[in-house]
Hints:
Rossmann fold
Amino acid sequence: MARLRIGYCITAHGLGHAARAAAIMEALDRLLDVEFVVVGAVPAWFFAGSGIRLAALHPLQADVGLVQSSALREEMAATREALDRFYPLKPEFVGQVASLFAGCRLLLSDIAPLGIEAAARLGIPSVLVENFTWDWIYEGYLDRWPALAPHVESLAAVYRRADYHLQTEPVCRESDCDLRVAPVSRAPRRPAEDIRRLLRVEQGQRMVLVTMGGIGGEPLNPAPMLARPEQVFVLPGSPVEGVTIRENLRLLPLDSGLHHPDLIAAADVVVAKVGYSTLAEVHAAGTPLAYVCRPDFPESAPLARFIDRTMTGTEIALSRFLDGAWVEDLDRLAGAGKDGRRGNGAPDAARFLARILGQA
């Protein structure tokens, strides 16, 4: 019997949405004989070692999201200009993208409206996967950027046309949906002790993972970290070619070959910009989390509330993060220890998709 082909259209905004998509693809692959066609600005290395069978990866811009100058700073004037250039979607562009998904039985969109339009063009079911949608994000800026209003209205209309709606906790705006699941995260692949050995974390040293996600982070002051040799600070997304050891710093490029959930599971503490995939992976691992909120980004507050309610975590003020004072907060947080692995919503999402495909 022929392998089922599934399409996935992924927003161009960072790598967090690609991580959620990868988790669902991995879970669906464990249930069914499937292969995937992915459209989105996701680098090929991101899927390396995942076991996901990709029939094709088309690194096209699937939507705008937010234009950012760094992981913590969005540029709304540039975002509005980019939205005006990208939308409304041109029929010939939708047709070109739809042709890339030819042969697919189902088309999932995390949270790119383009995928919903392409599925309609092909006459196949579309599934919106989200914990927020872009219309909701842009609504949060309307008081300062009223010119975003037409995009709020038009994108909301596209999202309503999805055939199925899957929400993943923590949800920013609860709405009628076909299924709501626990946070969706990729599973670790290697034992924590292997990761710590590879990164030369000695027995008795604390491993602190400092991650800003897939968008370049703010430059960190290394002095407070270097002053704490009993702690090893692991910094993915650093501007280095490979794993680089500098005293008690471990600098990793984004494409380090180390699976991000493995780093989270191996760490004693995670320090991060609060974002969906990092939160979900920390939630699954039970690792204590010190998080930084983006001051104006609407998603930050719902994620922070979820952390405070269900996880071992503490917020770090942006000023303390930028000047390095956050290093002083680690002893108290690490003292809480890990609180055990939690459930992952990916298998529930995969079973839901299998039912849509008539394979359950």
